[in-house]
Records
---
Amino acid sequence: MSSTLVVHHLRVSQSESIVWLCEELGIDYKLVCHDRDQQTLLAPDAYKELSPLKTAPVIEDVDTYTPNHDHIRLAESQACIEWICRKHGQGRLLNKPWDSNWKEWLFW
């Protein structure tokens, strides 16, 4: 079964944690790597078009929770982490506010 999850990885960025998360969960995903400009170290224009924030990380997926199975695109680390853990990881690696290390988990 092929995954619907696509991780857009901008090298040397916060998207490192999303790739790491997917590997820790052992889930299937498609990795699309984007290289920074060698001179400016900025993200390429194609990457910036993925998110209105023009930041990393960005993931794309099919929202199987909606009747039409809408295509979604998420930016921001915490949103991506929550989505991946809940949808693809069956809640694994998520902490609750009452867990003793919740604050550290949020910082990660």
---
Amino acid sequence: MTKSTEANYQSNSKKTISKFFHIPFIRIIIGTVIMGFIYFLFSVLIKSITGFIEPEATIGRPVRAIIALLALLFGYNLLFKYYERRKVMELSIIHLPKDGLLGLVVGALMVSVTISFFALMGYYQVLSNNLSISSLLAGLIVLTSLAAVEEVIFRGVIYRICEEWLGTNMALIISAVLFGLAHMPNDSANLVSIISAIFGGIMLCLAYSATKRLWLPIFLHTGWNFSQLFYGTNLSGLSEFSVYSGFKSKLQGPEWLVGGEFGIENSVVAIIIVVVVAITLYYIMVKSGKLVKPSFRKTDIAG
């Protein structure tokens, strides 16, 4: 083999390897594994270091959540800056205040409308006041961190890459179904909760597509989750976050209407509200021409 032939062989090998690692499916696998590993690593590592901090609920866990969150966002920015050789605009800090506030407000309003309906129907009742600034702030921090890891993986990695590859509509289906299935292990999860999570996933995907940034879906997700705790209702069938509840409440009525043990996310009222918001976001995207076509269709058109 001549030097020229060997050089060409090495060059072609490098191109083949580079093409392999830039296949959309491979990018999704690598991004998902690395992001999940970073969050898990820092959560476990920091817990071993800060496990002595008390009280655990209002100081220890929030401290770990902040560190894990910063590591996650820094890792995402670093990974895709060099992996995809681009500026990571979906984490543009300049848009954080506006997108973050909008997300929190919309998420809180969605839950508040649902709870108000239940209260008017006589299904929701406040039993006691547990309001505590430190507890609510701690809960907000913890839930923001948890929402961020889900949004980074499901919207920042899976949905974003699928949208570039397969277009908005197909990406919505794939990402939302995976998001719904990810909620299967939750306590009291059933078919309704999976369907509810799928619709929620569609809404959050569209929140990303509407802005091309992760801040809106992260804080919309946070506002949705935090408000459920604020009103003292179950969050996705999980009881571990009840320590952050603003009120101790009673929610009793037909399971299909109020959601049962899983919480209001299983409520037909909440599902309808999520669908309405998702349709509104989709309409905005259509009107503004932000729907992405599959990359192979773009190639066909260009040809």
---
Amino acid sequence: MPARRSRRRSGESPALPDGRPAVVAHRGSSELKAEHTLGAYVAALEEGADALECDVRLTADGHLICAHDRDLRRTGSSDGLISTTDLASLDQLDFARWKEDPLPASQRGPWQPPPHGGVELARLDEEQDDLDKVLPLRRLLETVADYPRRVELAIETKHPTRFGGLVEKRLVDLLDDFGWAGVDSPVRVMSFSWVALRRVERLAPDLDVVFLLDSPGEWYRARPLAGRHWIAGPGIKVLRKHPDAVRRIGRSARLHCWVVNTEEDVELCADLGVEALISDRPGQILRYLERDGAGPAPGP
């Protein structure tokens, strides 16, 4: 299928021409909408997000879907694992109801009635229904490809899984269907597993990959194995606790940070030269950046 290609080559910074960092919608506009639903991503695009972030998992019948948890209890209000459930069965679930349900997941059984007097509100139309259903990764890629402006994607593969390296193989195959497995790709692949990133590197050597970090030491241990397209991805807690270490990492590597939801954290990221901010609140972060002109600090 024909697809829109990004003008940015892999390995180049996604920072915008005005010098501000790129704002990446974490699981969509996930503070406002149910995470990983088409509704959350449409909202993020309407808010002006520069990129969309998603986690991916394989279903029992081999489809990549956008989902963080290995089980369905929190977001699908159902028992079972994604890896043992086929796509047709997942398509019968409402993945947005939990966002409105006042009961915590621990008290909400798989068939707990919705909080509307025990009566499910009728859907207005099929399109609205699609916004709340399971989101296959292919559908998200189609949405990005068809959008009238450039939008990038940050796709995280979850590990460990029962499928092992098949997740990365299916992901690269799908990206190749869109012409997005090479140097012109708007996609970067993220993981806490350096093994997973090495798999991606072997399958698609021109793709950017982001090594997600819970501590600075993880970057230094993996750095000898890293290729030229590796990006350091420290969590915001790492920046708060180890700013000097992050600054040192940033002297030789690009920095993408998760999850950045406050003005104070935006300022910290700017001071440390972070080029991409992954946020649950893309619209709010964009408004702050546009108002105050926060951008990466000058290099040493």
---
Amino acid sequence: MNEKLKSEFVIDFRKHLSREFYLQPTEWVARNLIGKVLIRKVENQYVAAMIVETEAYLSENDFASHSAVGRTNRNKAMFERGGIVYVYKIYGVHHCVNFVTEVEGKGCAVLIRAGFPLVGIELFEQLGSNRRVERLLSGPGNFARGFRFSLADNGKSLVSEDLFVQEYQNFSDGEIGISQRIGIVKSKELPLRFYLRGCKSVSVNPRE
């Protein structure tokens, strides 16, 4: 894993994930986002990080999902066609960024919990200068803050040149851990958290 992280990364929009990627089953998307790179233009320059931890939120029998209560003004982006971002605020302070999945009306998304910084580290450090580089984007609040996500980004496309996900690393099933999701009360028994084993950017245990 460490050798893979050391390999040089080059931003190339031609390698971006198509809208079809996000229309697949949510658990599949959450698992296969591990090793992909989120890229965003911030302050006229690009920042990029490899996604290393995700959680799937489903539309059926998942009472931890925001969509479990039906469509509301807050969660309506979840019910759009996959391939856009759903941003919300927790505790009135931190933003969280999710990738909407599956077909319109389904109400599914993948929460991005952590990333490994690759490009634009100095911009990430502006909002987390007291952290080690590998921990700058650890945890969903830090991830969203590092990429400057806000409620104004809710509903934005993930297939634009200013915001997209690019192919990068492919990890085997043995390199990707699966566990229960973090910090929820309902449907907590579901094994819908995916993470890169042994990566120090992963937010919480288990990391192995």
